[in-house]
TrEMBL record:
Oxidoreductase keyword on record: yes
The organism's place on the tree of life at top rank: Bacteria
One Pfam match: Nitroreductase
GO molecular function: oxidoreductase activity
Alphabetical UniProt keywords: Oxidoreductase
Family matches, as PANTHER family: NAD(P)H NITROREDUCTASE YDGI-RELATED, NADH DEHYDROGENASE_NAD(P)H NITROREDUCTASE XCC3605-RELATED
The keyword Oxidoreductase is annotated on this UniProt entry: yes
CDD domains assigned to the protein according to its UniProt record, in alphabetical order: TdsD-like
Name of protein: Nitroreductase family protein
InterPro entries listed in its UniProt record: Nitroreductase, Nitroreductase-like
Family named by the database record: Belongs to the nitroreductase family.
Amino acid sequence: MKREFNFDIIDEIKNRWSPRAFSNEEIKKEDLLAMLEAARYAPSCFNEQPWKFILSYELDDLNLIRSVLVDSNRLWADKALAFISILAKKRFDFDDGDNFWAKFDAGTAWGYLSLEGEKRGLVTHAMGGFKKELAKERLNIPEEYELIAVVAIGKLGNREELATDALKEQEEPGSRKALEEIYMEGKFK
């Protein structure tokens, strides 16, 4: 499916999507760190920067992440050569109040991270399909943080190597609602 854009926007946004086919082509740690650097500069409420990231690229760490994914994600994510787990701090540092915007801010950081990956020739696929309590335990996540997503990272692979026909059929950029469907002027209509 070819995506159509109403306006000229940056290429990284035009080209980014969430594939499931990863190649075994090596990725550079420098590129992963640059992705985290991009995420570091995301805006946040009160400049709180409530995110933390767990980078997994060594074999033991990769296997640990794979062990907490749900089976439907393991079918394809096992081939990813890196993962970044995204966490959000639940409370503000400045007053210890609930940070209702932490997940929003962590999501913004994820967006920056994914676009930097796209710029560097890497593909990313964020997943909510993980065993939350098991992940919390195995990743040693403290109570004040919540694991929001696990991102599979690598170079784009061959869709024909995916485990099932259903996965092969889904392996293309997703459609988007028309611009007119997602915004209103003045108030909700």
